[in-house]
């Protein structure tokens, strides 16, 4: 009887845990379940559920020169941010993993600061610095700011991979005549590929979705998609925003699925 009571207690705990997880997942995906249908509405204003279905707002997005220009700026910024932050983050993560020097530990804290400091403070600080050096509303300034924001995520993802990797394998390769860089590229990098893929996704999505810093420093011809979305919501509730949000959600999901399919078994 006691064993039967324990089994019932375990099953009840499992059911309650499953219900809790389902409730949390529903809460997280609820905005998606609302925004995506609204993007197919024929109405001039945001409407849920839609009374009539249409691709009107997707056509408005792809047919707008302003929206396409902002999308181009965001994509260029995200791609350059990813390409630049990956080698810098890899070098930093490798140094942090391989060294026990105090200066390296201090460097780690400095590089992770953008993740710890409130984003509004970072945005204000970047704005005042850029105002002095003339980088406001420039693509260069936007990319530099996004690299700073993406680096902590890249370092953490790569550091997790390096700490689960047996560095003695690289040492063996170096003992057989390879220099450190060649040993890293031939032995270490292929074995931390999942972490590299994760770091790439983090860098790209962090830059693509960033809004607060862009509100402070982007503008003119170098206005990001997220800033233009914020401005459009402030000035007028345009259902085009729902279409853009749906596209961004789909793009993020596709990136995650592609990364998952490329993960080694």
Briefly, what is this?
This protein has 265 residues and is an all-alpha fold. 79% of the residues lie in helices and 0% in strands. It has helices at 2-38, 56-62, 65-98, 102-116, 119-133, 139-163, 168-175, 180-191, 193-209, 212-217, 225-235, 240-261.
H/E series, N to C? HHHHHHHHHHHH
Rg computed from alpha carbons, rounded to a whole number of angstroms: 23 Å
Helical content stands at over 70%
Ranges where pLDDT stays below 50 over 5 or more residues in a row are none
Instruction: Please name the fourth-level CATH homologous superfamily of the largest domain.
Output: MetI-like
Query: How would a textbook summarize the main sheet?
Result: none
Number of helices: 12
Backbone shape: globular
CATH topology term of the largest domain: MetI-like fold
Strand content: under 5%
CATH level 1 class label of the largest domain: Mainly Alpha
Q: SS-based structural class? A: mainly alpha
Q: State the separation between the terminal residues, measured CA to CA.
A: 44 Å
Can you offer a commentary on this structure?
The chain is mainly α and 265 residues long. It has 2 domains: 2-56, no CATH class; 64-261, MetI-like fold. 79% of the residues lie in helices and 0% in strands. Helix 2 (56-62) crosses helix 12 (240-261), helix 3 (65-98) packs antiparallel against helix 4 and helix 9 (193-209) packs antiparallel against helix 12 (240-261).
């Amino acid at each position: 009887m006691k064993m039967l009571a324990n089994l019932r207690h375990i099953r009840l705990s499992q059911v309650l845990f499953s219900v809790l997880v389902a409730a949390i997942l529903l809460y997280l995906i609820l905005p998606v379940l609302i925004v995506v249908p609204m993007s197919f509405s024929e109405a001039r204003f945001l409407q849920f559920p839609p009374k009539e279905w249409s691709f009107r707002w997707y056509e408005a997005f792809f047919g707008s020169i302003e929206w396409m220009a902002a999308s181009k700026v965001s994509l260029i910024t995200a791609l350059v941010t990813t390409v630049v932050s990956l080698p810098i983050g890899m070098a930093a993560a490798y140094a942090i993993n391989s060294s026990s020097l105090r200066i390296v530990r201090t460097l780690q804290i400095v590089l992770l600061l953008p993740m710890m400091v409130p984003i509004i403070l970072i945005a204000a600080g970047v704005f005042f610095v850029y105002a002095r050096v003339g980088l406001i509303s420039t693509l260069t300034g936007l990319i530099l700011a996004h690299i700073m924001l993406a680096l902590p995520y890249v370092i953490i993802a790569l550091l997790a991979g390096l700490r689960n990797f047996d560095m003695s394998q690289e040492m063996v390769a170096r003992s057989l005549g390879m220099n450190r860089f060649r040993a890293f590229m031939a032995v270490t990098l292929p074995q931390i590929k999942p972490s590299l893929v994760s770091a790439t996704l983090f860098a790209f999505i962090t830059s693509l979705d960033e809004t607060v810093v862009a509100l402070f420093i982007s503008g003119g011809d170098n206005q990001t998609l997220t800033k233009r979305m914020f401005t459009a919501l402030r000035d007028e509730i345009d259902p085009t925003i729902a279409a853009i949000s749906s596209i961004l959600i789909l793009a993020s999901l596709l990136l995650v699925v592609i990364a998952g399919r490329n993960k080694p078994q």
